[in-house]
Design goal:
Strand order of the largest sheet: 5-2-6-7-1-8
Number of domains: 1
Radius of gyration: 18 Å
Shape: elongated
Structural class: alpha/beta
Bound molecules: zinc ion
CATH superfamily: P-loop containing nucleotide triphosphate hydrolases
Order of helices and strands: EHEEEEHEHEHEEEEH
Oligomer: single chain
CATH architecture: 3-Layer(aba) Sandwich
Length: 201
C-alpha cells in the first residue's frame, strides 16, 4: 500500500523581521532543490523593486526571478500556468507584498497541482500590523518557520521600524522599499525597544 501513499504538497510561510536572512535562505533552498534534480521557479511581487529581475541577497549571491507578479495579476493566468504545471516547488520572496487573492491561488497550486510553495516574507509592517498577504499566509499555510533577527539590545527582534532621515516614523504609505529611497531604512527591533524608540512610551 506504500506505493499508493500520496503526500500533497505544502504551502509554507517562513517569516521574520528585516535582516533575518530570508533572501539568503531562499537562495540556499533553491540550490538544494536543484542539487536534488528538482524543478523550481522564483516568484516575487513587482512591489519589490529591489534587484530588478533578480533576487539579491545582502552578502552577494543573486538569482533570476521567473515571475514578477503585479498586484492585480493571477498566477493562474495563461502566461504562467504552463510554467508552473510540472514544477516541484515555487519559492516566493517578499511574500508580504502578495494580495490575499494571490496567496489563495498559491494555496490552490499546492493542493490541486501538487507543487510545494515556500513563501519568505515579513510578518508585520512598520506600524506593527500584519501585511494583508502575510495575514492570509498565516491563515492558509500548512507549515511555518520563524527566521530570527536580533535587536541591537540583544533580544529577538519582532518589529520593523521605518527610519526616515535618521528618525523613526509611524505614519506613511505601507509599501516603501528601502533601496528605492535612500533616506528610508528599516531597523529590526524587539518589543521593548519599539515601544521606547518608535512609540516613545
Ligand atoms: Zn531591543
Amino acid at each position: 500500500m506504500v506505493g499508493d501513499l500520496f503526500i500533497m504538497a505544502n504551502l509554507e510561510f517562513r517569516y521574520g523581521a528585516m535582516n533575518s536572512g530570508k533572501s539568503m535562505a531562499l537562495l540556499q533552498m533553491a540550490y538544494n532543490y536543484e542539487e536534488n534534480g528538482k524543478k523550481i521557479i522564483l516568484v516575487k511581487s513587482v512591489v519589490d523593486t529591489k534587484g530588478g529581475d533578480y533576487l539579491v541577497s545582502r552578502i552577494g549571491p543573486k538569482r533570476k526571478v521567473q515571475i514578477k507578479l503585479s498586484r492585480n495579476e493571477s498566477i493562474l493566468n495563461n502566461k504562467y500556468l504552463p510554467m508552473i504545471e510540472n514544477l516541484d516547488a515555487i519559492l516566493v520572496d517578499e511574500a508580504q507584498f502578495l494580495t490575499p487573492k494571490q496567496v489563495e491561488e498559491l494555496w490552490y497550486v499546492s493542493k490541486r497541482m501538487n507543487v510545494s510553495i515556500i513563501c519568505f516574507g515579513l510578518k508585520t509592517n512598520f506600524k506593527s500590523e500584519f501585511f494583508e498577504g502575510s495575514r492570509r499566509l498565516f491563515e492558509l499555510s500548512d507549515k511555518f518557520k520563524e527566521l530570527e533577527t536580533i535587536c541591537h539590545c540583544g533580544v529577538k527582534a519582532r518589529f520593523n521600524a521605518r527610519m526616515v532621515n535618521g528618525k523613526f516614523i509611524t505614519e506613511g504609505e505601507e509599501f516603501v522599499i528601502d533601496g528605492d529611497d535612500k533616506n528610508v531604512k528599516y531597523v529590526p527591533l524587539c518589543g521593548s525597544c519599539y515601544l521606547k524608540e518608535v512609540l516613545k512610551k
